[in-house]
Amino acid sequence: MLTAPVGLIRDLDPKRVMRAQVNGQDLVVWRASNGDISAWDNRCPHRGMALSHGFVRGNDLACLYHGWHYGGTGVCRYIPAHPELDPPKTIKATVFSVAIADGVIWVNTQGAAEPAPVPMASQPLRSFHVVSHSESLARACRTVAFEGAFPEQLEQGLYQLGARQVFLLENPLDQGRLQITALADADATPEGCAALSRWCEAVRRSAQEEKVAA
Amino acid sequence: MSRAYALNDWYAVADAQVLARGPRRTMLLDQEVTVSGTTDDLRVIDAEGSAYPAQFRYGHVWTSLGDAPRPLFDIPEADEPGRRLVPCGVVRVKCSPLRAVENFLDIAHFPFVHTGILGSEPHTEVAPYKAEIRDDVDEVWATKISFYQPQAAKSAEAGGDTQYLYRVAAPTTAVLYKTCPPKPEAMDVIAIFVQPRTETECDVWPWMALYDDVSAFAGLVQFQQEIFLQDRSILENQRPVKLPLDPKMEIPTRADLTSIAYRRWLKSKGAFYGALTEDA
Ligand code: FES
Ligand SMILES: [Fe+2]
Predict the structure, then answer these.
(1) Mind telling me how many Å the CA of A54 is from chain B's nearest CA?
(2) Dihedral in degrees, nearest 10, Cα atoms B138, B140, B142, B143
(3) Could you tell me if A152 and A100 lie in one domain?
(4) DSSP characters for A155-187?
(5) How many domains does chain A have?
(6) B71-276 architecture in CATH?
């Protein structure tokens, strides 16, 4: 899986910056004022500062350390220490391919991002981190009851919970953690989504407890 | 890891206050050492009980682990009458000792990291200045630096241009001289003595020699510590953790002349402890 889900677009408002990880690569994912989303190596080419601590100025990402500005293509556009200088085009952040599908932000650090298909008509539910591995998470999904009944696993990541459905996208992180981006079926009401979201939280806790017990 | 050069330098491992509290067991160059005694009867030993030379200077206990220590650098201002000598405690930072020094030599970050104190937008421009390796004294110097500061010092009442001069006296020791608000003809002295615990962790001991008879001691220390904690939030988020000496790895600009000279100087001396070298 080269293209990985790093979260919901809903959780990344314009002018916001977040940190993510794909295939062990530390990333800054940020959204310009115009709504464009970029994912870069989380490292400023100047002095190596983590760009995830930076801030968005218009449609540029500014590094926290010396305020250098980088545009959406990763090219440095402004160096505050030399306001008159047109920065050499060689100063450029390492840029990765991003795609948006089903409200999910997908990143590929090795080629063009190709979102995985979602096997249902969906809406964004939530995103969370869990200290667990894939199998314990799947087990937790089958054994944490929803409205009095155990969910049924329909296929990898897809669960039937009564009339509802949840699809869980996994992105393995370091230190035995998983980043989960959860989608609900498109028909779920806000109340239905709130209940599914609570179920996700119970699954998260259950999967982590199993990890601790093991 | 190459400690070869670093072994023969001197490092601050305690100040008088720490010493008075009893023995301090600490790390220096990946080695455990214990500092104890009084300022005129010092003892530095390692885990096996071997003793190392120690001296009390600039408010701190200095030691060296090598067989042939170079002389401890001189800060003549420390003995000038009228200056207040202010040790500012210790700050633990998870970064290369060399990154800590390099950050101390950098003015371009003031408006972004020390916003409203040592710098502020839109006053971000770094005017041309001079940086050089002085072979006669084997130090890096940066001179003719001028920068707009909203509150240059605890004693400053208004913003204004501050003149700076930097001196790197050893790979882990840097001294800065800056115009001092109450006494325009003199310069305040602020130094950092970096104790390299490992290549990726250090204890930083800031120290000042000021003309400031007004501010309370605690206020001076607090001012300096606040600034240093802001620096720490940067230093712990730089990658790679070690300072790259290969000029291709990080792209400098004209404002980084001091940093360029510092890296070149380290490389020419083989001062690689805390550095990322091409062959590493
Ligand atoms: S490290 Fe990013 S601007 Fe200097
Ligand atoms: Fe600083």
Answers:
(1) 10
(2) -10
(3) no
(4) ETTEEEETTEEEEEEEEE-STTEEEEEEEEETT
(5) 2
(6) 2-Layer Sandwich (3.30)
Could you tell me the residue range of the domain that residue A20 belongs to? 3-108
pLDDT-derived band at B154 (thresholds 50, 70, 90) equals confident
| Domain assignment present for A115 | no
The domain ranges of chain B are 71-276
Helix axes B97-104, B257-269, angle to 10 degrees: 150
pTM of the model: 0.95
Cβ–Cβ below 8 Å for A80 and B124:
yes
Domain identity same for A57 and A152: no
Contact across the interface for A67 and B253, Cβ inside 8 Å? no
- What are B22-44's pLDDT values in tens digits? 999 999 999 999 999 999 999 99
Residue in chain A nearest B106 by alpha carbon: A66
Residues A96 and A151 in one domain: no
Question: Does residue A104 sit in the same domain as residue A185?
Answer: no
The reported pLDDT for the residue numbered B152 is 75
The whole-angstrom separation of Cα A207 and Cα A128 is 13
In this structure, the answer to whether residues A135 and A93 fall within a common structural domain is: no
Measured between CA atoms, the residue of chain B closest to residue A87 is B253
Mind listing the pLDDT tens digit for each residue in B81-126?
A: 989 999 999 999 999 999 999 999 999 999 999 999 999 999 999 9
Render pLDDT for A180-190 as a digit per residue (tens, 0 to 9). 999 999 999 99
